[in-house]
Structure formats: C-alpha cells, structure tokens
Design goal:
- This protein is 61% helix and 9% strand.
- It is α+β, with helices and mostly antiparallel strands.
- It has a single domain, classed as Outer membrane efflux proteins (OEP) (Up-down Bundle), CATH 1.20.1600.
- Strands 1-2-3-4 form a 4-stranded antiparallel sheet.
C-alpha cells in the first residue's frame, strides 16, 4: 500500500504536522474554531457586507410637467406604440424583439453571467477525484494495482460568499443591460417607422410642388413671350424647379435608407417596408405620456444598471479582501489496492482524512484591494452622474415635446389661413377676377406650407418617442405581458 502513500498522501505530511499541533483537539472542535475565526473576520469587515447606494436628491416633479400622476408601476410594461393602431408598426416592434441581433447578443451575455453565478454557487460542493491504475515504478513502492475516491473540499467562506454576491449583482446588471437594449430598440423602430412614412409623405408633397412649379414656369413663359414678364422671373422659377428636383432625389435616397434601417433592426435583408397608413392621418396632439413624478426614473434600465454596477464593484472589493482569509482544506480518501493482483480482489483497504488550514497572504493582494476600491468609488460617481443625466434629459424631453406641439399648433393655424386664402382666390379665379398665374402662385405657397407642416409633425412624432424612451416606457413588454392588460389608458392621456 505504499503506492497510495507516495502517490497521494506524502505531499500532505507537512500540512498534517501543522494540524497536529492542535494536540488533542478534535476534528469537529478544530473546524468550529476555524469557522469562528473566518466568520469574525467577515463580520468585522465592512467590505464583506451589502453595499449602500449613495444618496441622491431628486425633485418630486419634473419642471416641465404640469401635474403629478403617481401610478407609474405599469409604465415599463406599457405597449404605448399600440395607441396609434398601426398593425405594421406593431409587427415591426414584435419582430425586432424576437429577431434583433444586438438584443440576442445581449441575452447571451446575460446567460453567460447566469452561468458564472451558477459556477460560484457550485463551489460550495466538494470536488471528487476517482483514482485507479497500475504501477511498476519501484520508487513508488510495491508493484500492483490501486483504486480509490478522493473528495476534496477547499473552503474559504469569505471568498465564496463574496464571489457569489459579485456574480449575483453581475446578473442583475446584465438584466438591466438587456432591458436597456430592448428600450432603445423599441424607440429606434418607432422613430425609423415614423421617419419613413413622413419621408414618403414628403416625397408626395414635393412631387405635387414640382408639378405646380412646372405649371407656373409654363404660365410665366407665356407671359414673357407676349412681353408681360421678364427673363429674370423665368430664371428664378426655373431655379426653384431644379432645387425641388434635388430635394426629390435626396428624399428618395432617404426613403431607401429608412427602409433598410428598419429591415436591419428586424434582422432582415435590405428591402421595402409596406405601410398602410399615411403620415398625415396621424394625430400626435391627442397622445401624451402623462405628467409623471421624477421617481418614475427608478424604472430606467440605465439607472438600474448603474446601481447594480456599484453593488458589484463593492462586492469586488470584498472578493479582494477575502484573499486575506484562510482556507480550510478537507480531504478524505477511500481506496484499496493489491500487490501483483487485480482491482477486483484488493489486498487492503485504506481510509485517510486530512483537515488543515491554508493561510497564504500575498503582498500583491493589498494592491488588488486598493485597485478595487478605486473602481468602486469611480462607479459611485458614475451612478450619481447617471441619475443627474436622466433627470436632465427627461425634463428636456418634456420641454421639447411641449414646444414642438406648440410649434405644430401655430403652423397648423398658419396653414389654415393660407389654405383659406387660396380657396377664396380660387373662387375669384372661377369668377374671372384673378389670373391663373396668381392662383398658381398661391397654390405653390400652400404646397410649401404642407411640406413645412409635415416636417413639424415628424418632430412631434420623434419627440414623443424620445419622451417615452426617457420615461422607460414599454421595455418589459412581451407577448405574455400583453395579455396582462397592463396598457392602462390613463397613462396615454388620450383626449
């Protein structure tokens, strides 16, 4: 049986001699003493405890909001884009959630973090070595066969607790990251879709304007030929016509880009997105996210991510500190062997037990601790900055949404006045009181106002999408949550 001794046990003689200095102290009492030492160290070190988030003061209400609505629990689940009753938009959102590559990649990163957490949890389970073989090496002792099982348990309680805590916060951090990617994706799809149909409307309006300018060119040419107009006016109108042609070419390109961008978001090859609604049929004046208190930002994935990053960094300091604590090594060997015999008929069975303390302190550990502290304090400042930035951006988005709505209202009034003027002039033209030339000039003025109004409506749409994104609306939306009837109408404030 010297084979067992030389192969597996001799390296532990020195450590066993150290354990032997405890004298008559029993194995259980030794473990109790070591456990007490470790637990005392863990409790006494503040870095081994849960992190406390830095205190941040937030206003009760956004400055640009008018009233308070405290019912914000459903906001992350709110499929706010469904208020537009556009099945194409709804399908694009759902397709992006299922197929977007960036989102899928972030989900796999989350799975990696979950695997690391599982790994940290499984370190509490002893490892098991199964041994067996045959030796003819004289230096190891007798020639023969051997077999056995060697469960080993290396126990650094502090390190195990901190590593598990670190991995747990990392999982929550990556969950917030996934939610942030989903929130951004929903906003990108909505912005891209509204931009696309607004560009299609703009192309239609530009073509209409081009036709009216071409008519005006013809009328001015007729006037010039009979000496009632000059080449200067003809040249000016022709210049406008060329400018409209240039705009049409650019918008056609932008439509292609918008289509391809949406296809990319849903993980499809370049192509066209079919739309059934015209942009001028949308009314963004009747929908608002609501005036919400500033604590709605607790729903934001970026703030949650920053919060968990702080807690993870704090746990990272604890992991570094845990390297200063001892490890308990527990071994127990069960085996047998035979001299010039078979494993099935061993000559002797062996049982051996080790219990010893391994307390190795590396000076480099202190440098690691200081480095982790620096990372932790850096994340604290990053967290505070994230909260401040979220408050700033959300209040700005409230303000911008209010301003673009006012802008669109003023432009709508202006358009109504210009259109009324044109209708009156049309009546005068039919009565023979004004020329076709004058009527066409006023028609071009109406065309230009329609283009301006279309651009203002797109600003409305994009500001509304951005505001919902700042308020973290809808990032937890799934097919399952849709059936929970969480689309609370009061959050839409539909007039």
């Amino acid at each position: 049986m010297r084979v067992f001794f030389y192969l597996f046990y001799k390296p532990k003689i020195f450590l066993l001699s150290i354990i032997g200095r405890f004298g008559s102290m029993s194995y259980r009492r030794t473990n109790t003493l070591l456990g007490f030492i470790l637990c005392s160290g863990i409790v006494s070190c503040s870095w081994m405890r849960e992190a406390e988030l830095p205190k941040t003061t937030s206003p009760s209400l956004f400055r640009s909001a008018d009233s308070m609505n405290t019912n914000i629990e459903s906001l992350p689940y709110l499929a706010w884009w469904q208020q537009f009753n556009d099945p194409i938009l709804n399908n694009l959102i759902e397709s992006s959630i299922l197929n977007n590559l960036e989102l899928q990649s972030s989900l796999q990163t989350l799975e990696q973090a979950r695997g690391q957490l599982l790994q940290a949890k499984l370190t509490w389970i002893p490892t098991l070595d199964l041994l067996g073989g045959y030796t003819t090496n004289p230096s190891l002792g007798d020639i023969g066969t051997f077999f056995g099982a060697w469960p080993t348990y290396t126990l650094n309680i502090a390190n195990m607790i901190q590593n598990q805590r670190y991995a747990s916060y990392q999982v929550q951090e990556y969950e917030a990251m996934v939610n942030g990617v989903r929130l951004t994706l929903i906003a990108q799809v909505c912005s891209g879709y509204f931009t696309l149909i607004a560009q299609q409307q703009q192309l239609y309006l530009l073509n209409q304007l081009y036709v009216d300018i071409a008519k005006l060119v013809s009328l001015i040419e007729q006037q010039r030929k009979i000496g009632l107009d000059t080449d200067i006016n003809v040249t000016a109108i022709l210049s406008q016509q060329k400018q409209i042609q240039a705009q049409i070419s650019l918008v056609q390109h932008n439509i292609r880009v918008s289509n391809n961008s949406l296809k990319f978001l849903i993980n499809e090859n370049p192509g066209d997105i079919e739309s059934i609604n015209e942009f001028n049929n949308y009314d963004f004046n009747n929908f608002h996210p609501g005036d919400l208190p500033a604590n709605v930002l607790a729903n934001r994935p970026d703030i949650l991510m920053a919060q968990y990053t702080v807690q993870k960094s704090h746990a990272g300091v604890g992991v570094a500190f845990s390297n200063l604590f001892p490890s308990i090594q527990l071994d127990r060997f069960f085996g047998g062997g035979s001299i010039n015999g078979a494993l099935s008929s061993p000559d002797q069975y062996v049982k051996m037990t080790d219990a010893y303390l391994d307390w190795g302190i590396s000076p480099a550990t202190f440098g690691q601790i200081e480095a982790q502290k620096g990372a932790y304090y850096s994340q604290i400042y990053q967290y505070i900055q994230t909260v401040r930035k979220a408050l700033r951006d959300t209040d700005n988005s409230f303000s911008f949404n209010n301003r673009v709505n006012e802008k669109y209202a003023h432009l709508s009034d202006a358009f109504n006045l210009i259109n009324r003027k044109y209708n009156l002039q049309d009546g005068l033209y039919k009565s023979g009181l004004i020329s076709n030339l004058m009527l066409t000039q006023n028609r071009i003025e109406v065309d230009n106002m329609k283009i301006t109004l279309n651009q203002a409506k797109l600003e409305q749409a994009l500001s509304l999408v951005n505001l919902y994104q700042e308020l973290a609306g809808g990032y937890k939306y799934t097919y399952a949550t849709e059936s929970l009837n969480l689309s609370n109408k009061k959050y839409l404030n539909q007039d």
